[in-house]
Amino acid sequence: MTRTFLGMPATAPAGVGQLRGEESFPAAARRSLADPQLRRNLGHATRTIRAKSAGVIGELPDWQELRSAGSAIKADVLARLPELLEQLEAKVTEAGGVVHWAADANEANRIVTDLVRATGSDRVIKVKSMATQEIGLNEALAEAGIEPVETDLAELIVQLGDDRPSHILVPAIHRNRAEIREIFLRAMPEVDPALTDEPAVLAAAARRYLRQTFLHTKVAVSGANFAVAETGTLAVVESEGNGRMCLTLPETLITVMGVEKVVPTWRDLEVFLQLLPRASTGERMNPYTSMWTGVTPGDGPQAFHLVLLDNGRSAVLADEVGRQALHCIRCSACLNVCPVYERTGGHAYGSVYPGPIGAVLSPQLTGVADNASLPYASSLCGACFDACPVKIDIPELLVHLRAEAVEARRRPTAESVAMAAAAYTMDRPRLYEAAQRAARLSRLAGRRGRGLPPPLNGWTGSRDLPDPPAQTFRDWWAER
Ligand code: SF4
């Protein structure tokens, strides 16, 4: 395949996989908000992860310095991405692996499907991977008659429930244990009909099913958290050990990795291995950190393929403001602190990337016009920026993308008219004073507590209209 990185136009890639929402965020969010069980599950889960994460981050006196180091490494990677990717390719090849370059989702799916077919296997085991969800690999494999089996417990719950993930780290965050029991009874092969909803019993049932699958499947598909260019080493971090089984037991391993995941050296990896577990699961280190370099005769998979995925990333890289979204290490800390995500959950974002990072990454990968409502799925409170271990300024990106969305529509909206009127008024002191007086008069006339009239009533539909102060600052100043 051709290497199209950096030379691609700033348009949506030909195959965007599962990045495009079927309906706008407000419509989908309204449905989620009407589900009290979902809100209870989300509130409980995000509060628990937040508290755990804050505890272990508080133990590190140099957390802010680590964040700055992570941010600087990512900026350096993006500044010389082609060079690092070529170094990675050379090292992986030297170590016995095969590197494939995929410009978009369609091409990546075709490469993986052909590789699996060539092994003669009709089933693959999978390590949890955002990149393969992004390209819709499971659906592409199923269409080709190949059964993909998710081995991360939460991903397995989502897959058996014929559902969609709603959190980066905890894909089944919207399910409680009673619902999980029902899903297992309905869809897990050879499950004990006396299954209870005790967490240990549910985990044991999944373990029994997965162990048989690990032992009888010859091909695994994984993503990668990082790839070290200087040695061609890939790294996957996970909590359950399922990843370790997938990465070591099968004969063939295929890894699909977004091009931005490369880091220059092992010293750089050290920074991220400290940042990621504390920000994501609230642990001091990941329970399982698996690393491999090409193939080792007689040990582990004897065929290794690395698929380097662009799928819109070159276009994101071309945007000097937007490119910082590619710093993301998928820790999900921004989801856990976001007041919007906590109430709507991940499905409302209509994309495999939910929460604040999804609100900025998905529109950039597909083109803003295809996900125009997502940059507005935020109160711009800034909690995501404070929580991000690699200091991505998500509020800045949201504002940047809102400007692009407005530009794309190129027609006046209630918001743009209101903003233009406010700018015109604030530029003219006399007019501004008159407007302040009018606002106070309307308060006296009894508008207090009511919403704004159309077309501005959308803003007050879910907010209280603040009362203007009894006295303006100018009057107060003049008095004194
Ligand atoms: S944007 Fe930052 S906080 Fe959010 S998932 Fe990515 S790295 Fe984590």
Mean pLDDT over all positions: 90
Ligand set: iron/sulfur cluster
pLDDT under 50 segments (min length 5)?
Answer: 1-12
SS-derived structural category = alpha/beta
What is the domain tally? Answer: 2
- Give Rg in angstroms: 25 Å
CATH fold group of the largest domain: Rossmann fold
Give a count of the beta strands, DSSP E runs of length 2 or more. 10
- Choose one word for the global shape: globular
- Cα-to-Cα separation, first versus last residue: 75 Å
Oligomer: single chain
Strand order of the largest sheet: 1-10-7-4-2-3
SS strand fraction: 5-15%
CATH superfamily of the largest domain: NagB/RpiA/CoA transferase-like
Fraction of residues in H or I helices: 40-55%
> Can you name the CATH architecture of the largest domain?
3-Layer(aba) Sandwich
Kindly provide the name of the CATH class of the largest domain: Alpha Beta
Main pleated-sheet profile: 6 strands, parallel
Structure commentary:
Helix content is 50%, strand content 10%. It is of the alpha/beta class and 480 residues long. The protein has 2 domains: 4-315, Rossmann fold; 414-479, no CATH class. It has a 6-stranded parallel sheet with strand order 1-10-7-4-2-3, with helices on both faces. A 4-stranded mixed sheet has the order 8-5-6-9. A hairpin with a 4-residue loop joins β5 (226-228) and β6. The longest helix has 22 residues, at 36-57. The chain is globular and about 85 Å long. The protein starts with 24 loop residues before the first helix and ends with a helix. Residues 1-12 have low confidence and may be disordered. Residues 328-334, 357, 387-390, 392 line the site of iron/sulfur cluster.
